[in-house]
Amino acid sequence: MGLDVPAPEILRARADALRAARRWFWDHGFVEIEAPALVRSPALEEHLEALEAGGAFLHTSPEFALKRVLASGLGRIFAITPCFRGEEWGPNHNVEFTMLEWYRIGVGFEGILEDCEALVCAAAAALGQTLPPFERLSYAEAFQRHAGTAAPDDPIEADRLWVNDVESKLHNPTFILDYPADRCAFASVRGPYAERFELYWGGLELANAFTELLSPDELRARFAHNNAARVLAGRAPYPVDERLVHAIGQHPRAGGIALGVDRLIMRLVGAADIRDVRVLG
Amino acid sequence: MANVYETSEFRNGLKVLVDGQPFSMIYFQFVKPGKGTAFTRTKLKNLLSGNVIERTYRTGDTLEAADCEDVEMQYTWNDGETFYFQNTETFDEVPVSKLMMDGSEDFLTDDIIVSITMFNSRPVAVTLPNFIEAKVTYAEPGAKGNTATNATKNATLSTGATIQVPLFVETDEVIRVDTRTREYVSRVNTK
After folding, report:
1. Are A163 and B60 within 8 A, CB to CB?
2. Helix A8-27 vs helix A109-126: angle between axes, to the nearest 10 degrees?
3. What is the pLDDT of residues A75-86, one digit of tens each?
4. Closest listed residue to residue B184, CA positions, set B148, B151, B144, B141
5. Which of A37, A57, B125, B191 qualifies as a FRET site for B179, CA 20 to 30 Å off?
6. Do A159 and B8 touch (CB under 8 A)?
7. For residues A230-264, b (16+ Cβ closer than 10 Å) or e, as one string?
8. Is A55 exposed, middle or buried (0-12, 13-18, 19+ CB in 10 A)?
9. How many angstroms separate the most distant Cα atoms in chain A?
10. Average pLDDT of A79-108?
11. Which DSSP category does B107 fall into?
12. Which residues of A touch B36 (CB under 8 A)?
């Protein structure tokens, strides 16, 4: 009978990397927040399935709670917390996983991008590793370079080509920038582009960042759009978090990011399966 | 209505119809771009031609089940090109080409019971038990003093297969082998 526990040296590396991450946040004036895991409204996205628990939901990320905290006046916050996404299970997915999120007033996604590179390098340094400078590639260039074609207009076909032919070729740590405006999720939009980036390393998506949306009306419209898409796909609509709609825009320009801790550890220790780096429930 | 499998039901060994041809799923993996739709990436082996194709299905897509039946059969004999099995219930004899044995013929022990996949009353695939026990008919002498824990040497089995075994395995010993990976598992105490 296996213990379903990673090797001691992996658990030690994981703890060392997380300690370095926390130290980086403390050194840069961030306040750690304990985000609630049990929530009334899960992240209202078309492609995220929240688990129901006790008449509420287990959060799929601490995003909504942290944005409310940001509106309360704390300008630099972070959280490291277990999250839950139903139906997601594979070498790079576990229904329960650990997320690191941070938010800052006064910067857009460009400022978060600098934070992200510094933080990942600090975690690597704690394990005695030096990473090459992170590459920067636009969404369109990534398709051209790795799939040899322009990104398909149909979002589903674009996603299919991305997971089959692009993602696996992003070996070095790489920021993907300039997502088309219709792939904005909850990021603000400037011209034809969403103000967001994703970080890849070793063919794996590690993080997703936004310049935060500041318009309550726009957020409400995106919630309505996502709920309509969910219903169309035969999935349940989720309740809108009115406190979040109220909070949006009560703070100045801000940026935020969600980084998968297990996947970062996988890359730092060279593991091929997420179940090799976390204690299984 | 035809029996169908949803992406959440995908598993290795699933027999499905793609473009009217029967395939066996040999690999599947959940993949999902951060903010996009989820997919299951698969590798499917054509049960008639042996060709492997890659297909990526959206979550919620379905694949039609191939009308296949797995039947237990006992190995009887071979003439080098064709391998003969007998249905243990009807006693019908079923010939299987060497090509369809897919390289596993050198693990066939006397009277071994295998699973044969039938499609339209034709055998299309042979699956051996995951583990077999076989006698080592020849093992290279182990180098004395070599105690490296992962060192291996060649050994030939009574079934004809040559596999890698640990240095301590000797001729005439019976060993347990994983037929899927062709790897040594353990020695079998025959006393």
Report:
1. no
2. 140
3. 999 999 999 999
4. B151
5. B191
6. no
7. beeeeeeebebbeebeebbbebeebbbbbbbbbbb
8. exposed
9. 56
10. 96
11. G
12. 47, 155, 158-159, 162, 183
Residue type, B35: K
B121-144 per-position pLDDT tens digit? 889 989 999 999 999 999 988 766
Q: How far is A46 from chain B (nearest CA, A)?
A: 8
Which residue, among B31, B40, B57, would best test binding to A if mutated, counting the most A CBs under 10 Å from its CB?
Answer: B31
At B181, is the secondary structure helix, strand, or coil? coil
d(CA A75, CA A255): 10
SS3 A240: coil
**Are the beta carbons of A163 and B33 separated by less than 8 Å?**
yes
Nearest residue in chain B measured CA to CA from A184:
B35
Position A203: which residue type? G
Chain B: nearest CA to A91, how far in angstroms?
7
Q: Which of A45, A91, A205 minimises the CB distance to B33?
A: A205
Give the pLDDT mean for B104-133: 93
Q: Which of chain A's residues have a Cβ under 8 Å away from the Cβ of B39? A: 159-160, 163
ipTM exceeds 0.85, yes or no: no
Which helix (H) or strand (E) element contains residue A249? none
In this predicted model, what pLDDT tens digit does every residue of B32-62 receive, in sequence order?
Answer: 987 889 999 999 999 888 899 999 999 889 9
CB A95 within 8 A of CB A120: no
Residue A221, pLDDT score: 95
| Mean pLDDT value of segment B149-169 | 90
- A47 and B41 in contact by Cβ < 8 A? no
Count of beta carbons in the 10 Å neighbourhood of residue B44: 23
Which letter does DSSP use for residue A272 in this model? S
